[in-house]
Amino acid sequence: NKQVSPICSLNACNCLSTVLPFNNVSQSIIVSSCLIGNERDSRLVCCLPGARVRDVSDRVFGVLKGEGEQPQVVVHIGTNDIGRKGDKDVRQAFRELGWKLRARTNRVVISGLLPVPRDSEMRNREREQLNTWLQGWCRREGFGFLDNWGSFWGRWDLYKQDGHHLNQRGTNILGGSFASALRGGGGGL
Predict the structure, then answer these.
(1) What pLDDT score was predicted for residue 30?
(2) Calpha distance 99→78 (Å, rounded)
(3) Model pLDDT, residue 74
(4) Please, how many CA atoms are within 13 Å of residue 126, restricted to the half-sphere of its CB?
(5) pLDDT over 90 for what percent of the chain?
(6) For the whole model, what pTM was predicted?
(7) What DSSP designation does 118 have?
(8) Is the pLDDT of residue 91 over 80?
(9) Composition of the chain by helix, strand, coil, percent to 5
(10) Of 34, 36, 58, 123, which is most buried by a Cβ count within 10 Å?
């Protein structure tokens, strides 16, 4: 199992360039597998570059430690699991993450996987199918779900040349989606 070094900070991480006010800044947390911009309005942003669902699950209690009662949490994870683990394993990893999050807060939004331009049509179809499952699972668990697929599908101009990571424009769009969810404007918080 590879080591994933967290990049966590209070009010400063290379995450989200969008500057938007949140309902309760002291209790807004974003946990992501990708570096996303320059978030100043969220209390805590924790980026785990290259992380898989289990990596986040293993660290969720540490990340949320000391963040008060019922913090708002947005989790963006899963793209790195596709093709490395079977569908059942990825779903089980999300269930385990959900149990851990539920033990800590009920104000959770799961951000769906994004398409990856450099991957095959089959892999992107797997991501889309996992998103369909995630959306239903989130509804059953009482979590919010952010469906950003439509904002990124066919928009390869929102990705860096590597065809995997978002460029600044892409991070702005994703960041705006997170900010909207934390403000209560989407995703069910």
Answers:
(1) 67
(2) 16
(3) 87
(4) 19
(5) 35
(6) 0.79
(7) T
(8) yes
(9) 40, 15, 40
(10) 36
Written as six digits, the tokens of 68 are 């008060």
Burial per residue of 98-108, b for 16 or more beta-carbon CB atoms within 10 angstroms, e otherwise? bebbeebbebb
- pLDDT(15) > 90: no
Identity of the residue numbered 159: Y
The residues near 142 (Cβ < 8 Å, ≥ 6 apart) are 106
Specify the DSSP element, H or E, that contains 144: strand 144-146
129-185 pLDDT tens trace: 999 999 999 999 999 999 999 999 999 999 999 888 889 899 889 888 888 887 775
Which residue, among 44, 56, 79, has the nearest Cα to 170 in the 3D structure? 79
Dist CA 22 CA 175 (whole Å): 13
Q: Tell me whether strands 44-47 and 28-32 are parallel, antiparallel or unpaired.
A: parallel
| CA 64 from centroid of its chain's CA atoms | 15
Distance, CA of 147 to CA of 135 (rounded, Å)? 8
Tokens 């209560």 correspond to what residue? 184
For residues 112 and 114, what is the distance between their CA atoms, to the nearest angstrom?
Answer: 7
What's the whole-number mean pLDDT along residues 52-78? 83
